[in-house]
Amino acid sequence: MSEKFDVIVIGAGPAGYVAAIRAAQLGLKTACVDAFVGKDGKQALGGTCLNVGCIPSKALLDSSKQFHNLAHNLPAHGISVENAKVDLGTFIGRKDKIVKQFTGGIGQLFKANKVTAFFGKGKLLKGNNVEITGNDGSKQTISATNVILASGSVPIELPFAKFDNKYILDNAGALDINEVPKRLGVIGAGVIGLELGSVWRRLGSEVTVLEALPDFLGVADPDIAKIAFKEFTKLGLDIKLGAKLSKAEIKNNAVALTYEDKDGKHEITVDKLLVAVGRRAYTDGLLADDTGVKLDERGRIVVDEHNHTGVDGVWAIGDAVRGPMLAHKGSEEGVAVAEWIAGKAGHVNLDTVPWVIYTEPEIAWAGKTEKQLKEEGVPYKVGTFPFAAIGRAVAMNEAIGQVKVIAHADTDRLLGVHMVGPGVSELIAEAVVAMEFKGSAEDLARIVHAHPTLSEAVHEAALSVDKRAIHKGN
Predict the structure, then answer these.
(1) Mean pLDDT across 20-38
(2) Closest by alpha carbon to 113, among 197, 199, 200, 18?
(3) How high is the pLDDT of residue 474?
(4) Which residues are CB-contacts of 145 (< 8 A; sequence separation ≥ 6)?
């Protein structure tokens, strides 16, 4: 007879492991099933985010930033270092150590909260049974009153540029290059392409980014994207827009690329190629045919506003369902579903989920863009403020970018806040709190902000909405 749980979570990424911990906190007997294997061959909890996504990429971004600062920022402070070098073994090893620390930390949290971890690939069967196939092929079945599907996402692979993680890399492969490539090609100017392209550019690679769409960062506010494009170009990223890759061939230990743009067909050769054209929901082998759980046209699990699949006791969260593929969005869905299962009031507001790109400068936003509001016919007013007029940013020698606040023209309610500049990954939280509490631009403008801080840019941008910024002309 199979072991019975109150909740089984399939997937131990940011959505799944958080759901499991919260369910256990609420007194529910909980299991979590995951098949991710770490470099040591053992189970590595944390999914893509902790193993080959958010955490390792931020580690490399920070390390590469330190190296970049030696040559480009520290001289302005009167500090000079000659012949600075990168030991790539230590560089990558630091990242691996951080990953191991956090994946092991989840294991400790599971033990502390009495979550039972199963190592293997989980498959939902009819009747809320879950079949677990171990990496050795062994099978066992467990069952639960509620099953939470948190299977995550995987990189989209191009049919003519298949991953081998030697020459043609996915996000995981780009985290473990054993020498700095002289020439790195990046397909896709999205979050992953820009972040990992920035890492290797700072270390000396010639980076060419091919983006098929005609607009740069179309999901971001156009004013913010324009500033970011200019700064990335200064960094040395060669970003080609409207450039569609049609061929990628491995020749003479390099990758020969053919792409087309408005000027015709072009060919370039790179030593490594990072393909970062997006991710898709990972539901391969997740569902038996008779479960009743449905997938949409994009392969995502269909859920209602409470993340319920319509099948009794079956829920789905994270990258495998609608909404932005962001770790923090998945985590909050995990908490909410656990609370709904326990009969409590869960809450996730997809309209205030913050987006962050951890490049240099950073990019962050929450809410609607000016373009979206125009298309929807919503009356609005805008306030902006540059970091060039912020004392703390100038003192840091990082006076790049701006904050843009968009409020409803009639009610003054905050509709969107968009930022590019130093530390905006942290500054965006203030905007999210204000928006979640239905705050107005006036609310942000009336709050006292410490001086000198970067947050003063948010304050002044909010004042600028009504043309009363103090430190710039309105």
Answers:
(1) 97
(2) 18
(3) 75
(4) 5, 6, 7, 128, 313
Catalytic member of 306, 308, 451, 471: 451
- Residue 194 marked as a ligand binder: yes
355-370: string of b/e by CB count within 10 Å (b at 16+)? bbbbbbbbbbbbbbbb
Is 19 part of any domain?
Answer: yes
Each residue of 342-351: pLDDT tens digit? Answer: 999 999 999 9
Q: Which two tokens stand for residue 472?
A: 């710039």
266, 371: one domain: no
68 belongs to the catalytic site: no
Q: Residue 273, annotated ligand binder? A: no
**Is 330 strand, coil or helix?**
helix
Distance CA 42, CA 194 (A): 31
Which residues neighbour 311 within 8 Å (Cβ) at sequence distance 6 or greater? 291, 292, 293
Element (H or E) spanning 425, and its range? Answer: helix 424-436
Residue 393 sits in a domain of what CATH number? 3.30.390.30
Q: Is 370 annotated as a binding residue?
A: no
pTM over 0.90: yes
Residues 366, 428 contacting (CB under 8 angstroms) = yes
The structure tokens 């780009």 sit at 174
Q: Which of 472, 295, 291, 275 is nearest to 390 (CA)?
A: 472
193 in a labelled binding site: yes
189 known member of a binding site: yes
Residue 292 annotated in ligand binding: no
Tell me, letter by letter, the H, E, C secondary structure of 89-155.
HHHHHHHHHHHHHHHHHHHHHHHHHCCEEEECEEEEECCCEEEEECCCCCEEEEEEEEEEECCCEEE
Q: Is residue 163 part of a domain?
A: no
Please check if 436 is assigned to a binding site: no
Q: How many domains does the structure of the chain reveal?
A: 3
Residue 473 has pLDDT above 90, yes or no: no
Beta strands 254-261 and 264-270: pairing type? antiparallel
Which CATH number do you get for residue 271? 3.50.50.60
**196 within a domain of the structure (yes/no):** yes
| pLDDT at site 209 | 98
Q: At what angle do helices 14-25 and 327-341 cross, to 10 degrees?
A: 30
**289-321 tens-digit pLDDT:** 999 999 999 999 999 999 999 999 999 999 999
Q: Please state whether beta strands 279-281 and 30-34 pair in parallel, antiparallel, or not at all (unpaired).
A: unpaired
Which pLDDT tens digit goes with each residue over 142-167?
999 999 999 999 999 999 999 999 99
